[in-house]
Specification:
This is Quinate repressor protein. By secondary structure, the chain is α/β, with parallel strands linked by helices. 39% of the residues lie in helices and 18% in strands. The protein is built from 26 helices and 29 strands. Strand 9 (312-316), helix 12 and strand 10 (335-342) form a beta-alpha-beta unit. Helix 2 crosses helix 3, helix 5 (120-126) crosses helix 6 and helix 25 packs across helix 26 (778-794).
């Protein structure tokens, strides 16, 4: 048996077709998808009108049902044919006809055709009852003529950002669609294959940039469907308790497709981790199924996982050959983990050639990873497993698929550290009776053991600057270390000389530092290795040591959490990315950035203002306005970005460029413009701002009066509202935040306000992930952030706890 051709890897630019029942959300998703991938949205109705010169309703009236039917299908086929690349195509009612469905099936050979699946109750609530029953019945056909599936999860059960509601009740509530957009854009990144590359290019040290199998240590949280269906825990409680989730299907309710699709969607949304999708052949405690019963069902379920675009498909290579071949043909961009489980007594010992043969066979099938687990009765010492791994390394040349191999017994996985990658783990509150691997260890425990066994080292992390004694970072970071089983420490060190900072960084146990003023800019010339974001902004706020043995980034990334002399230091800027994350999360689809139209406003001209401008640029905004009390400084910042943007050839507004004689000559491009006075009207010809970021202190600093910035009322007229991000949190309710709450309550409820604690928590989360390479316990860090701040307000808690050097 050898690998079969992968039938579902398409040209990354191939147009993506959306099919599904009326009310499934195709139009909204199409719109979001087109913006995300920067593609053209083609809708069936619009295309019909373009080709025939009249709407479908008019055509039907004028030409009757038969001619309309024929015309409709012709238009449909031309729509597909003429838009093979670069589009998102939204299908309407025509996809219900057989001829159109044949055309879609044909299209599936070259393009992704995504069936949009929405809960029946949701669709029924939107449509007339009789309509709904009929439509849902024929909707099943859509599944048959598609090759992907997106489960459009209802948003009402999830938390909203801010408290905004739409002014116009006929429009969807903007914040309601935020999760859906996040889910759908990730899904598109996965099926077009751009996800991992994008993350790597964006930030090679980010958690998303390195897939779990390439991390130095990684853990797979095992979650069984039977458990998820019954548990009384919230899915959110599993956050950051593994590097990926192994979702195990171990029961087959009558509506298994619905149940499984929904569960995958929920896991994605709530945990944001890659999914390993596994269909278990013989679950513990379940009736044994005959091969003719189980093979077709399981084969369909494996295909469902691949249609849902899971990151990994776990495939048992001891199963029926046609089931294996079907899964391999349908693989698409999911990675396949080929498994050999030896579950009973008499499993061949690790030095038996059988295992090496199995490895070779899995490799020849095209498996991306190979997993071997063996039931052991104490007959196989740990060294046997180790020498088997060495044997694989020595006999099979690179590139060879990563290997996961361990022994397990009735008591569970023998030791938690047998494999470096994808070690099976459980949640501490989980009972795992049903799991034949009887997981004994949690992520925290397993990861902690790496330190106890000196494979990793306890390190010291810092926030440093001239005024950091009240920083909330130590509380948040230390809580996150404790949660993840890391013996690291994080402290605030007040210092303001580069010499002292260098001394801190040169220690063998230095893990990384968050920088505050005056270091963010001053350190730039000292750092040879910086992210391109930090270079563009001209400031660094995170420094980490590079301890890789080679110059490869992966090597450096995987040397985090280890002590020793650093070869170099890497500087990055998470100020911009945190602001970016907060804006992206809060911006409603109606205010989605349109480069030529959307306006952004930044208040201030310091380091944070630079980061805010950069965040707006990265969001695609090309009309950025800067206001600062000292106009000259605003001009400098604007100049910095205009020069940078010119070098990058970013599209933006133009203004006449003065020639040597002062006369107009040609055009210069401008991405940033300065607003000189608050009393000025909003600049003519530009939309009112929908993204506003305030980067000025709300308390008096160094004797200078607080900025006390509030928006001029004339600038607040965006009919679709927008987002205000306030960076200050002393006090939390700054004059701007108070003004926006009142404005939202009384005038336009579509504004979302993000307060300073949300942003500072996001900064700490991103810094944690960058410095440790591990997923941050976000909810915990946010909670600790608020709690610590409240304690500080009351004058209690640890308060000003930092060292002064
Ligand atoms: O602005 C901040 C906040 C911070 O100073 C803190 O105290 O957590 C840490 C800095 O790196 C970051 O840029």
């Amino acid at each position: 048996m050898s690998g079969s051709r992968n039938e579902r890897v398409f040209d990354p630019c191939a147009s993506i077709v959306l099919v599904g029942c009326r009310g499934a959300g195709k139009r909204t998703l199409g719109f979001m998808g087109a913006l995300h991938l920067r593609r053209r949205l083609v809708t069936e109705d619009h295309y019909f009108e373009k080709l025939t010169g009249m709407s479908r309703g008019q055509f039907l009236l004028q030409h009757g049902k038969d001619l309309f039917g024929r015309q409709d299908v012709q238009v449909f086929k031309r729509m597909l044919d003429n838009n093979r690349t670069g589009c998102i195509i939204e299908c309407g009612m025509s996809s219900l006809s057989e001829e159109a469905q044949d055309a879609l099936r044909e299209y599936c050979r070259t393009n992704p055709v995504v069936y949009i699946h929405r809960e029946r109750e949701q669709i029924a609530a939107l449509l007339d009852a009789t309509d709904a029953t009929a439509l849902l019945k024929v909707d099943e056909k859509h599944r048959e003529c598609s090759n992907f599936e997106f489960y459009n999860l209802d948003d009402s059960a999830t938390q909203f950002v801010g408290t905004s509601t739409a002014a116009d009740s006929r429009q969807p509530v903007p914040s309601k669609l935020l999760n859906v957009r996040e889910d759908f854009t990730k899904f598109l990144d996965q099926i077009t294959g751009r996800g991992a590359t994008k993350a790597w290019l964006e930030s090679p040290f980010s958690v998303a940039a390195i897939p779990p199998e390439f991390r130095s240590y990684s853990y797979a949280l095992r979650l069984r469907l039977s458990y998820l269906q019954e548990m009384d825990m919230e899915l959110e409680e599993f956050e950051a308790t593994g590097d990926c989730v192994e979702f195990i299907i171990d029961q087959w309710p009558h509506d298994v497709v619905e149940v499984v699709s929904k569960q995958v969607a929920l896991l994605r949304r709530k945990l944001g981790l890659p999914i390993i999708y596994h269909v278990e052949e013989n679950p513990r405690g379940q009736r044994r199924r005959a091969p003719e019963e189980k093979d077709p069902v399981d084969s369909d379920l494996l295909e469902l996982g691949l249609r849902l675009g899971v990151e990994y498909l776990s495939l048992d290579l001891q199963r029926d050959e046609s089931l294996i071949q079907r899964a391999l043909r349908y693989k698409g961009r999911s990675k396949v983990i080929g498994n050999y489980w030896y579950m009973g007594f008499g499993a061949p010992p690790w030095h038996d050639d059988q295992h090496l043969e199995n490895y070779r066979h899995a490799q020849s099938l095209g498996c991306d990873l190979i997993r071997m687990a063996r039931f052991s009765t104490g007959d196989s010492p740990v060294e046997h497993l180790e020498s088997f791994k060495k044997r694989v390394e020595q006999t099979i040349p690179n590139p060879r698929p990563p290997l996961v191999a361990y022994d397990f017994s009735v008591l569970g996985v023998r030791t938690p550290l047998q494999s470096k990658i994808l070690n099976p783990v459980k949640h501490p509150d989980m009972d795992t009776d049903q799991d034949f691997l009887a997981i004994i260890s949690t992520y925290r425990h397993s990861y902690g053991l790496e330190f106890q066994q000196f494979l990793l080292d306890p390190l010291e992390f810092y926030v440093t600057g001239s005024n950091v004694s009240w920083s909330l970072s130590p509380a948040m970071q230390n809580a996150a270390y404790e949660f993840s089983g890391m013996p690291h420490t994080f402290q605030a060190v007040t210092c303001s000389t580069l010499d002292r900072l260098t001394q801190i960084c040169l220690a063998d146990t230095f893990g990384g530092a968050n920088l505050a003023a005056p270091f963010k800019i001053a350190i730039m010339p000292q750092l040879k290795v910086k992210s391109h974001h930090a270079t563009a902004i001209g400031a660094v706020n995170v420094v980490l040591p590079l301890r890789g043995k080679t110059n490869a980034i992966l090597d450096h990334a995987n040397s985090r959490n280890k002590a020793g002399a650093a070869q170099e230091f890497f500087g990055d800027n998470t100020d911009w990315s945190s602001i970016f994350t907060c804006l992206r999360r809060a911006i409603s689809p109606r205010n989605y950035v349109q480069p030529s139209k959307t306006s952004g406003l930044v208040i201030g001209a310091g380091g944070m203002a630079r980061a805010a401008i950069y965040a707006l640029i990265q969001l695609g905004c090309r009309n950025i306005f800067v206001y600062n009390r000292t106009v000259e400084r605003a001009r400098e910042v604007a100049e910095h970005f205009n020069t940078w943007a010119e070098g990058q050839q970013l599209g933006m507004t133009t203004k006449p460029k003065p020639g040597p004689d002062g006369q107009g000559q040609g055009q210069v491009t401008e991405i940033c413009r300065v607003i000189e006075r608050l009393a000025d009207p909003w600049p003519e010809g530009y939309q009112l701002p929908t993204m506003i970021i305030s980067c000025v202190p709300a308390t008096s600093l160094d004797g200078t009066p607080p900025a006390d910035f509030v928006m001029p009322v004339g600038w607040l007229g965006s009919p679709t509202g927008g987002v205000v991000v306030e960076l200050a949190y002393e006090p939390l309710i700054t004059p701007l935040v108070a003004q926006m709450y009142a404005h939202r309550d009384q005038i336009n409820p579509s504004w979302v306000v993000v307060d300073g604690l949300e942003v500072v928590a996001e900064m700490a989360i991103e810094a944690f992930e960058l410095m440790t390479g591990r997923m941050a316990p976000k909810r915990l860090m946010k909670e600790v952030c608020r709690r610590t701040w409240e304690q500080q307000q009351r004058g209690g808690g640890d308060g000003a706890s930092g060292l002064v050097l």
